[in-house]
Amino acid sequence: MKTERRAYIVLEDGQIFEGNLFGCERDIIGEMVFTTGMTGYVETLTDPSYYGQIIIQTFPMIGNYGVMRTDAESREGGISAFGYVVREKCDTPSNFRCEQDIESFLKENGITGIYGVDTRQLTSIIREKGVLNACICTDIESVDLTKISTYRVTNAVKNTSGTQKQLYKAENGIYSVALIDYGAKQNIIRKLNERGCNVTVFPYNCKAEEILDSGFDGVMLSNGPGDPKENAESIEQLKLLIGKKPIFGICLGHQLLALAFGGDTFKLKYGHRGANQPATDISTKRTYITSQNHGYAVDIDSIDGSIGEPLFINANDNTCEGMVYKNHSAFSVQFHPEACGGPMDTEFLFDRFIELMKKGAADNA
Questions:
Q1: Strand residues in 36-182 grouped as ranges (E)
Q2: What are the residue numbers of the active site?
Q3: Start and end residues for every CATH 3.40.50.880 domain found in the chain
Q4: What is the CATH number of domain 6-149?
Q5: What are 173-184's pLDDT values in tens digits?
Q6: pTM of the predicted model, to two decimals?
């Protein structure tokens, strides 16, 4: 019988939670956040947008259908998060696709996890106080609260973006898309390929000139982690792309595009993370249930109405969920229309991007 190893979560305000260690045995510090998804823990763990963070799963049992590598969202199938917190882990998954259990997956990726923790209470604390830094450790006597409280997620995009340009061909390629990888989920590529787009993935620090000289039909700005304002060089390159090619931005790409248009962003109290975030289409008043994972938002009032206008609004807190820049063939959304696991109700946004590229091709014919 396996011996349980005691572990602790120490919040920056000094609160301590006791549980059991699983995954990799090493002390870690990160920004603690929660996600409300009932399924999709493989996609959550492999989403590069969680770089530097400790993930709390609010759903009580994790690992019951195992781990399938084909469901991974990162390019190499690895984990960008620093730590993992669950109420109960399942050691005997039941699923014909299962390749390994959740604990072996964490160990393989060097990720520290803790289970047997009151995740409801932890989530309540974050909802009340906002995102808190935390440490997962096995010896609370060695904990340095100053080190925990001063931790910041930095160089997030640099540490999650690919370093080499890579082509993903569609079965029947009609359009060519440049995808700038700020920490891209692989399902963005899959959704574009399904629609006849050959996708060339560029590293986050690519130059606008290289994209413009290569004759792409459109530019896709991916999701990614961290504070959007940290990416000053990427924002400057985006300014050179605006108005030259149709642009579609998702999550961090949405925030970077707003900054490139002269807008501003701010940090949310505890972010939007999960597969049940309501986003209302301003023009139709229809509300879509969306998958989201972000800690920052675009300040709608910071963007001149003659330049851009909101496309979607979060029905819970009225924050910006999308922008359209009509005179520049550009739009963006804060949520994930490519979400897996999660609702697929907003996949039509990829079709809207295709229409922009089709119009651009016709105008240049």
A1: 53-57, 61-62, 83-86, 88-89, 112-115, 132-137, 166-168, 175-181
A2: 251, 336, 338
A3: 166-363
A4: 3.50.30.20
A5: 999 999 999 999
A6: 0.96
